[in-house]
Amino acid sequence: MSESRDVAVIVGSLRKGSFNRMIANTLAELASERLRLEIVEIRDLPLYDQDLESTPPAPWVDFRNRIKRAHALLFITPEYNRSMPGALKNALDVGSRPYGKSAWDGKPGGVVSSSPGAIGAFGANHHLRQSLVFLNVPAMQQPEAYIGNVANLFDAEGNLIHEATRDLLTTFIRSFEHWVGIHARR
């Protein structure tokens, strides 16, 4: 992959001090110049309602267009009740409509999940992957990235201070770059 690829990063947590946002920022720092990672905000997306499709809300239109411009997708999510957060599910729904015009279609993706608990949001990671299969997003299988005990990995400024996690994220983003190079549409 010689040219630079635009990666839309979807952070499932809306919290300003989100650990998932910190992971997204760390991945952007670790990525080579061949990947341009940019967080695409989901906070202001109105809930999906098919009745609004005749005149879709401006945030839907902007979001769909931004996803369509991306070469690849990177999802970084916490786990809520053994699943992905509602805001992330809503973003998937908004981007997948109107039927037959999904903004997600065919874009290579990656998933990172994190949790203050030990299992690193395993449930959310795999629940998200189920949706990605239907949305025709080929998601990178290996290396997997479940970040457990995330509350202990960053300093007060949001900098990653745990070297083993930095190594994992470096391996992940290098593998993701290769994945995007193979699967991104020209």
Structure, described:
The structure is a single chain. The chain is α/β, with parallel strands linked by helices and 186 residues long. It contains 5 helices and 5 strands. The chain has helices spanning 19-30, 58-69, 86-95, 122-134, 163-183, and strands at residues 5-11, 35-39, 72-77, 109-114, 146-147. The protein has a 5-stranded parallel beta sheet, sandwiched between helices.
Number of helices: 5
List the secondary-structure elements in sequence, H or E. EHEHEHEHEH
Question: Which percent range fits the helix content?
Answer: 25-40%
CATH topology: Rossmann fold
**Overall geometry:** globular
**Count of strand segments:** 5
Q: Could you say which structural class the secondary elements and strand pairing correspond to?
A: alpha/beta
| Biggest sheet details | 5 strands, parallel
Relevant CATH superfamily: Flavodoxin domain
Strand order of the largest sheet: 2-1-3-4-5
The whole-number mean of residue pLDDT values reads 96
Return Rg in Å: 16 Å
- CATH class (first level) name: Alpha Beta
Q: So, CATH architecture?
A: 3-Layer(aba) Sandwich
Give the percentage of residues in beta strands.
5-15%
Sequence-ordered SSE layout with sheet pairings:
Elements: E1 5-11, H1 19-30, E2 35-39, H2 58-69, E3 72-77, H3 86-95, E4 109-114, H4 122-134, E5 146-147, H5 163-183
Parallel strand pairs: 1-2, 1-3, 3-4, 4-5
